[in-house]
């Protein structure tokens, strides 16, 4: 009887261990600058301080693709203290202000881009700059839809047929355009304004994305829907202590009523 109980205990323990979700913090930035021009702009000195903090405290910034491989079980091991860095929108300050710091620390960065802005909007990078960043092997372009729509508003104002066409353009159209411009597969998507619903999650998977990311403030986890993985949006008001709580997961463990709400 004792041997049977022991065997059951070992079996339950092993099953519990296997079921424990893998988690990785994914950070989300937008704009950079010498000074803070708006809430979404991170001072260059603050970003450099954050990267130095990661280095000093034994963290490894890993490519998004490696992180997703680990969460899916295709990659067996990653550094014990891993973190992923992403940047949304394709603002020109990524090229002028962020890139020198990225090169200094030699860290991989994923750029979620909406192609309608590139080489068109005054605030955005051009295709040549994006190609130059990718040539460094530190930057990787992925999708942020085609023109940065608000799906909630579109669903209310467009007919069902118009909305379906818009979703197709934002998901499939962006993927196709970015693949044409970069010459590589586009595998990942970042939801604009963090907006998604069950139907959009299905649409993203049908469009061929391997994973998609929200701005829900939690670690990306193997236990979550791969089309709605969490990220922490880092904005100008965040202190280095705030940054630490995002990376080490202590923000995840805070009561819901005390968690910070960051408006896009």
Radius of gyration: 20 Å
What's the oligomerization state? single chain
Distance between the termini: 59 Å
The number of helical segments is 9
Report on the structure:
- This protein has 264 residues and is of the alpha/beta class.
- The chain has a domain at 22-144 and 214-252: Glycoside hydrolase/deacetylase (TIM Barrel, Alpha-Beta Barrel), CATH 3.20.20.370.
- It contains nine helices and twelve strands.
- The chain has helices at 2-19, 44-56, 64-72, 93-105, 127-135, 151-157, 160-182, 198-206, 240-248; strands at 23-24, 26-29, 31-33, 41-43, 60-61, 82-89, 109-113, 139-143, 188-190, 211-213, 220-221, 232-233.
- The strands form four sheets. Strands 2, 5, 6, 7, 8 and 12 form a six-stranded parallel beta sheet that branches. The chain has a two-stranded antiparallel sheet with strand order 1-11.
- Strand 5 (60-61), helix 3 and strand 6 form a beta-alpha-beta unit.
- The protein is globular and about 55 Å long.
- The chain starts with a helix and ends in a 16-residue tail after the last helix.
- The relative contact order is 0.14.
- The model is unreliable at 1-17 (pLDDT under 50).
Describe the SSE topology:
Blueprint: H1 2-19, E1 23-24, E2 26-29, E3 31-33, E4 41-43, H2 44-56, E5 60-61, H3 64-72, E6 82-89, H4 93-105, E7 109-113, H5 127-135, E8 139-143, H6 151-157, H7 160-182, E9 188-190, H8 198-206, E10 211-213, E11 220-221, E12 232-233, H9 240-248
Parallel strand pairs: 2-6, 2-12, 3-4, 5-6, 6-7, 7-8, 9-10
Antiparallel strand pairs: 1-11
